[in-house]
Specification:
The protein is mostly beta strands and about 300 residues long. The protein is about 5% helix and about 25% strand. The protein has 2 helices and 26 strands. It has helices at about 185, 290-300; strands spanning about 5, 10-15, 20, 30, 45, 50-55, 65-70, 75, 90, 100, 120, 135-140, 145, 155, 165, 170, 175-180, 195-200, 210-215, 220, 235, 245, 255-260, 265, 280, 285. The protein has an 8-stranded mixed beta sheet, with no helix packed on it.
Length: about 300
C-alpha cells in the first residue's frame, strides 16, 4: 500500500513506479489527478468496488496501454483518460452510466469502444481526436449526448427514444434536427428531406466542407453550427430560414459568398466573426467584413 496515498476509500495519488498497477480492493473512488502524468504505468486493473473515476485521474499517462474496469464503475469523470495516446482498447462495464466531458480526448490509438446499454450521458468531446476510431454505436439507454463527441461515424440503436442516425450522422429521433455531423462524414453530406433545424456545433471543425446548400425546410441554424469550417467558401441558404445563431460561421476564413434570404428575422452575435473575405448579400445590398455590424442591425431591426 506504500505506493498508494488514500483517504477514506479514495485513492488520492499513486506514487509508485510499477508498469502494472492493481488498485486495492478497499478503494471506492479513483480521485482527481490520482495517476495524472504517471509515465511508468502501462496496465491498470480497477476492482469492482470502485464506483467513480475522477477528473483527470489517468490523464497524460502516455505509456498506458491497457485498462481493466470491473463491474461497479458508474462514472468516468471529465478528462479522465485524456492524452493516453497508447491506449488501444478499454472494455466499459455495464454498470457505467456517465462518460464525462473529454473523458477519452486524444486517445489516438483507441481503435474500438463498446458503449454498454447502461450509459445515460456522454459528455462534450468524449471521444474527440480519437483518430483511430472508425465508429461509435450509441445504445438505446443514452438520452444525453454532448457536442463534438467524436470524428468517426455514429450509429444509433433503433430503440433509442431520443436519437437516430443515418449515414454516420446523428439526428433527433424525428429526423428533423441535425445534431452532429462527424468530420469523417462531412465532405459527402447532403441534407435529407424534412430537416428543420441545424443544431448548435453540428458541423463545427468540419475542415473538409467547401460548399453548403441549406434547404428551404430549415428554419433555424444553431450557434456555432459551422464554426471553424476552414475550407468553407460558399453557403446557399434556403428561403425558409428565420434564425441564424451566434458565432454560426465564426473562423470560416475562406468564406467569400453568402446570400441571406429575407425570411431571416434574427441573426446572432458575431455570426461571421473573423470572416474577413466575406461578401454577404441581404435584400439586394452587399456587406463586406467591415460592414457586418450594419448587416446585423438591418436583420435584427436595430
Amino acid at each position: 500500500m506504500a505506493s498508494f496515498l488514500t483517504e477514506k476509500g479514495v485513492l488520492v495519488r499513486y506514487v509508485g513506479l510499477a508498469s502494472k498497477v492493481v488498485v486495492p480492493d478497499n478503494i471506492t473512488c479513483i480521485g482527481d489527478f490520482a495517476f495524472d502524468g504517471c509515465d511508468d504505468v502501462k496496465k491498470v486493473v480497477i476492482p469492482a468496488g470502485v464506483a467513480k473515476i475522477g477528473e483527470r485521474a489517468f490523464s497524460c499517462c502516455f505509456e498506458l496501454k491497457e485498462v481493466t474496469l470491473n463491474k461497479g464503475v458508474k462514472e468516468i469523470g471529465v478528462f479522465a483518460f485524456t492524452y493516453c495516446k497508447k491506449l488501444s482498447s478499454i472494455e466499459l462495464p455495464d454498470s457505467l452510466t456517465r462518460i464525462g466531458t473529454h473523458a477519452f480526448y486524444c486517445c489516438t490509438s483507441l481503435r474500438t469502444i463498446n458503449i454498454p446499454n447502461s450509459v445515460i450521458s456522454i459528455g462534450d468531446n468524449a471521444f474527440s481526436r480519437c483518430n483511430s476510431l472508425k465508429e461509435i454505436i450509441i445504445p438505446e439507454s443514452v438520452i444525453e449526448i454532448g457536442n463534438n463527441i467524436c470524428q468517426c461515424k455514429i450509429s444509433v440503436s433503433e430503440n433509442n427514444p431520443v436519437y437516430a442516425s443515418a449515414d454516420g450522422v446523428l439526428y433527433s429521433k424525428d429526423m428533423k434536427t441535425v445534431i452532429f455531423c462527424p468530420r469523417s462524414e462531412a465532405a459527402k453530406y447532403v441534407f435529407p428531406e424534412g430537416i428543420c433545424k441545424i443544431g448548435n456545433n453540428a458541423f463545427r471543425d468540419c475542415s473538409e466542407i467547401e460548399n453548403i446548400v441549406i434547404p428551404e425546410s430549415v428554419k433555424v441554424i444553431g450557434e456555432s453550427a459551422f464554426a471553424n469550417c476552414s475550407a468553407l467558401k460558399q453557403v446557399t441558404i434556403g428561403t425558409g430560414v428565420t434564425e441564424i445563431g451566434a458565432h454560426t460561421f465564426e473562423d470560416c476564413l475562406e468564406l467569400t459568398s453568402i446570400t441571406l434570404p429575407e425570411s431571416i428575422k434574427v441573426i446572432g452575435e458575431n455570426a461571421f466573426l473573423w470572416c474577413r473575405n466575406i461578401s454577404a448579400v441581404y435584400k439586394g445590398k452587399t456587406y463586406g467584413f467591415s460592414e457586418l455590424s450594419e448587416l446585423y442591425s438591418a436583420i435584427n431591426g436595430r
